[in-house]
Amino acid sequence: MESSGSEPPVTPSRYESQKRRDWNTFGQYLKNQRPPVPISHCNCNHVLDFLRYLDQFGKTKVHVLGCMFYGQPEPPAPCTCPLRQAWGSLDALIGRLRAAYEENGGSPETNPFASGAIRVYLREVRECQAKARGIPYKKKKKKQPPTEMVGGRHDFSSSSSSFSFS
Fold it and tell me: pLDDT tens digits, residue range 66-80?
C-alpha cells in the first residue's frame, strides 16, 4: 500500500481554536481602527482599548458604587448597572492573545499583551468586580507537598536533606 505522504488533518484543540478566533478578532479590531493599525505597530494602549471595547458584549453584572445592591453577592432584584466582561474571561483572553502574538512571529520583548499596564488593568478589574459583588478575591496558595505522619509526628526522614544531632 502506498503512502501519499500526507496525514489526515489534526483537529485543533478547543484552546487552539479559541486562540485562533481571538487572534483573528483582535486583528479585525485593529483593521477597523481609523486609521487601521498594523499588528507590528500595536502597543498596550491598543490592547487596553480592545478590552474596554469588549465590555459592551459582557454578561457579568457589575454594580456601580451608588447602586443599592453594591457589595451584595446575590441581589434580590434587578438593577440598571452595566454588564461587563468578567475578569476571568479577560485574563484567559490575554493569556491566549499573548501566546498567539509570539506564535505569529512577535517577539516576547515587544509583546503588548505581556505589558505591565495590562497586568495592572486586569488587577483593577478583578478588585473592582470583587468589591461590587461583595466577594473578596483570595489568591490561591500553592499546595505544599504533604509530609507523612509517624506516631502522631511529621516524618521528615524522606526529605532530601537530613540532619543528625548525635
Answer: 999 999 888 899 999
CA 88 to each of CA 58, 129, 156: distance values in angstroms, whole numbers, following the listed order? 12, 10, 39
- Measured CA to CA in angstroms, residue 77 lies from 60, 69, 84, 86 at distances of 15, 9, 18, 20
Q: CA-to-CA distance for 144 and 141, rounded, in angstroms?
A: 9
**What is the pTM assigned to this prediction?**
0.75
Cα torsion 54, 59, 62, 64 to 10°: value is 70
Mean pLDDT, to the nearest integer, of 23-41? 96
Query: What CA–CA distance (Å, rounded) separates 23 from 105?
Result: 13
The CA angle 119-30-104, to the nearest 5 degrees, is 70
User: Residue 11 and residue 59: Cα distance in Å, rounded?
Assistant: 30
